[in-house]
Amino acid sequence: MPSGERHIRLLMLSDLAREPRVYRQLKILAPHYTITTAGYAPSEEKVFNHWKIDPYFCNVGKPSEVKPSDFSFLPTLLAKSARRTKVYANRLKLKLLKIRKAVLIKFKNFSDYYWSQSVVSSVLDHWESAGKPTFDLVIVHDQELLPVALQIAAPQPVLLDAHEYYPAQMSTLKFNLFLKDYRHWICSQYMPQVAAMTTVSQGVANEYQRVYGIQPELVFNAPFYQTLVPQPVNPGKVRLVHHGIPSPERGLEKLIEMFHTLDNRFTLDFYLMRNQSPD
Hints:
two-stranded parallel ribbon; seven-stranded parallel β-sheet; alpha/beta
């Protein structure tokens, strides 16, 4: 790292190469600061260092990661049996871990649940292996990483960039039963400790202010300025586009159903990105 240059850490549970908001942030900051990122995969923007967050750290591997070559030293029939046993054992361990986490969440043991998560352990392991470096600023793009961000940043400031209204991000039964109160705990316990906070819209900012007494600054999800000339719409052919991830919570089928009520002048195209989850 260049001597005397300020060092910024950026954290997000995502493939950073697929995050336009993060990319624009890095594009602006990288020429002036030393940047270390952390996420499932690095951004295309050149940075000083990247910590790959492992969602299975201190856990067990996915069943699909058990390879025949792991047992090449055994006779063929025995190797097949050993591999099958390890696959089943991994599946069982994953299920037991999920049950344990569900119990911790349901009985509101939020702190134990949080600090036992693999992604949190992965970040801490990178930080400790690097000699617990200090950063001049930590930018965190997921409230899920906010407590660990505050720990590795102390006593330096943390900037939270909230892409969603985190406590009510989804409306599924699973979310309402297990995650809603947990997310409220993170926001109420840790958001007041940040030095600054930004978010994507006035409505989201107002809700954070109403519930948690924190007024974020607005940074819209606007691309870099382009000199474009709007073209007139052909009234005989109106094309609409949806761009995003094919997440079930987004209800893309409703868009398709809506188009069935329109005449054939209207068309709908989907430009879909793969989900950010490592699974």
